[in-house]
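PLD phosphodiesterase domain-containing protein: structure tokens wanted.
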Amino acid sequence: MSRSAASELTPLLKPSDNVHLPVSSPSHSSVSSISLPAHLPRWFVLAALLSALLTLLWLVLLALGPQLALQMDVTFYLYAGVLNSLLGSFLSASGYCCQKYAHVRVAHNAALGTAPMQTVFQAGVFLLAMGTVSAISNLGILGQAVQAPFAALTLIYSALLGRFVLYESFGRYDLLSSALIIMGVSVDVYAAQLAHVAHRSYTLQSLGQLLTRNSVWPLGYTIVTLTYAMVLLRRVQSDKLQRHSSGLLAFSSCAGIMAGFTSLATKSVVEVTKSALKRHEWLVFVNPCFALLAIAIPCALVPQLFFLNKGLEFFGTLKFIPLYQAFIILGNMGCGMVFYDEMASYSSIALTWSMGGIVSTICGVGVLLVKVNDELGGADVRRLNAVRAVDQPMDELLDCKDNVKARFDTDFTFEQMEWATDCDKLTSNNLRVCRDFRECQEAIVELLVSARKSIYYSTFLCDFNQVLHTTSDEHKGSTFVSLVRDAVKRGVDVHVLYNPVRDYGTNSIADLRRILPQEVHVACSVSDLGPSWFTRHLSNNSRYAFHHQKYICADEETIMVTGCDVNTEREGWLLKNHLGYYWHELSVISRCTPGMLHWIRANHKPAREKRYYDHFMESPPFPLVSGGWREENCMVNMIMNAKHSVQLESQIMISGGSLQHNRICPAIVARISQARRKGEPFHALILTNAAQKDEPSFLARTYCSLSIQWSLEQLEESALAYGLALDELWQHLQVGSLEYDNVLVKVHSNILIVDGNYALRSSSNLADRSLSARPNDTELGLLFSGPRVNELQQDLLNMYLGTVGESYSWSQVFERIRGSATKEPAGLIQPLKKKTYSPIFTWFLMNLFIYCSEGATGGRVKVTYETKVLGDNKHELET
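Answer:
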């Protein structure tokens, strides 16, 4: 396959990157390599299942113990907690191992999809959940400080499973670390046995008295730790130290501190729940104090996961996790000693032993850090490429930040892209652009009326009975269906590729077949990706992926791309639609080349699994693009090759950060950084929507609004990563929406213009659901260049700035948008600013939407499109 060929393979995990797992042999100095096995070892699967079963049985035994009149003294509870910790740590380590195995398998064979799609990854999630249940139950058995060192047991299991399941090395550092951790845990258990601490249960009242006892320690500890976290994080943020040792300390310590508070809140809820169930005091669960304890869990857990995510993003698993585990131990020990006063009954000898055990455990964790630095410094060849990739910081893995060129590598170059241009000014199918929906309707009427041989029409949403605007007296009052009927009477061969999903107001199949002539060839493209039975109660979407291509090809000579969907939401420039707001639409009309025609004909033919993630998809030839990674590559090439300006308009904006695959916003920031470094004048304008009034689902509207906050945050994060101050970024960049008389102007123009010379008008939105190497909607766009692009850009700027016939420079555009000391801001562009709430909140909600959406947010679930030509059954494919 040529380098410019389109594929839906994740570009960072290409087939050429075959994964071989090097294993050192004691009898050979050389390194041999073997491939990762296709299945997990049977002994590992059985051990994981047996551990899960034993954990469940053990929990049942502990729950039924009092009812069975079993003798359970202090020693019993101590060893019950130890056994539970051993099982829970193994389950957690097994879960991590399964997930890493899935990542390595995907790296070995990109056609498998993404790691979360793999069954073994989902099994890992189950094992992690079981480990979490075990850890939570353990909080009701042992004190928080006593079990703090047990957190490090997961590291030992992970090292052993890495050696025997993933074929990683297990050297002297791993052996020394394991010995120190085991010794630390054993000493800690011995200290607890010496102290002979009575097992205590807490009611809501007694717990309240304990936590609010006459002591400065609980309040003081809380104030000191939270102040430490805020001061350190503020310094890291202001001095841009995210990738330095200060950042490593900040993210690991803050995550560990919050882990301590998470365990504290969870233990409190577990203790109160346990006593309430035992005493049958059901009113406890509606007590406001219990509600506060329950709310405290996510309030601590969300920041913990946020700092964990940041640590992994900047430092990777190998560097971050050992230090994170050390601070988990310290955080749990601190909360247990301060809030539950767990060391009060320890004798001086027992306390000494306990502190010695904790120090030994932390030393064992520290050995792993030494191992990482030694391996990285010595370039240990035994370290397998695939597992190293999984352990690397997220930005190094996904973005290749060694240099900007590598980060924004594409499957083809800017020079290899082909563009539609003005051909012969004497021909009727010359390149032209429609600047609003009235012009689009004129073009639709013109193409349908002029057709003599064939019409190929693809639509996402069309009201065939809506009257089309036209200045032609002969065709006034015409509708799409009436023009199609006239075309059929002339002997025109009409093909319609239809989206039958009715979520956005599309006609039903039965209605469509009833109104269209029977000679019309109707094909429907439907995806298999939709909500589960549970999600249907939360969202009124019946599908999560759509046929979204919009074009008309007339007489195999002229093609109109986008702007040909028809309904009452769409209106001319600054003309209110029936919903009371404005609509901004664009369309491009160009000559249809033989290669484009060949693809269009094939697009209307029946196909099973036409666009399936596991296989290559057939992309149209340039200048057409059809979403996915190929179109994303085009946009990245255009942005990175821009000389002085980028203008991007998109219905939605979801880009940036490790949660998004598309690189559009990071590319804009990278280009600004280059220009700033070279002292070049450069401006970037991004227009999108602050609200999505036409989305049928409340969840979709909420997600789109949240995504703007996310993207603005990520723009600033990218700028800081490139060494740009935020005021330097915003000198070159303007993000805004359109409003007229305080009423929304819906941006539906989805266009990228660079330097006033190159443009891409597409149905694709700025989101992974349209622009990624992951599963997405079907899209279509057209690349075009030449004088028409500059004419279009100046017309658009005049429209947005409320003027006519002006020729703007970009400095003048920014001045009119922002105003100056002597002039007020003018025009329709309203700057979009980042809200002041915490990025932790945004990060949490984005994760919640993305990973609970079953693919609605794009890219994480396989999707198949099946195209059928309808027969006599008018209700076929009805949705």
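The chain has a mean pLDDT of 81. The chain has two domains: 1-23+36-197, 432-869.

Cheers.
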